[in-house]
Amino acid sequence: MKSAAASRLPALCLTALLLLGTQAGPAFAARLPDDVARFVERRERCDHFRGEDSDDPERRAYIAAKQHRYCKGSDIQLRRLKARYRQDLRMRRLLKRYETPIE
Fold first, then answer.
1. Residue 71 CB partners (closer than 8 Å, separation 6+)
2. pLDDT digits (tens, 9 = 90+) for 26-79
3. Cα(26)–Cα(24) distance, rounded to whole angstroms?
4. What stretches of 1-82 adopt beta strand conformation (E)?
5. How many other C-beta atoms are found inside a 10 Å radius of the C-beta of residue 10?
6. What is the CA radius of gyration of the chain?
7. Hey, what long-range contacts does 5-12 have (CB within 8 A, 24 or more apart)?
């Protein structure tokens, strides 16, 4: 059985290639609508912490707090962005890469 982190690896690699290969990260984000850029940044942080695990109780608590901070509400936000940009092929392709539901 695949670990949660391993199952997200292809999506994370695609996102990294999109951000780095299509245009340079910050330059690409600057070309995104503000709401999409904020979502991408937040969701990338969320996915980072979703992929972390630790045997240390303090580290686990830190990871859980970060997951709560960055992941809570992202499913709803993603649905809203997909609806808002349903006519924009570029945004649809970008938003389609994010796994749902994660909460």
1. 46, 49, 50, 102, 103
2. 444 458 888 899 988 888 888 888 887 788 899 889 988 988 899 999 999 999
3. 6
4. none
5. 10
6. 14
7. 5/50, 5/51, 5/52, 5/53, 8/47, 8/50, 8/51, 8/99, 11/47, 11/97, 11/98, 11/99, 12/47, 12/51
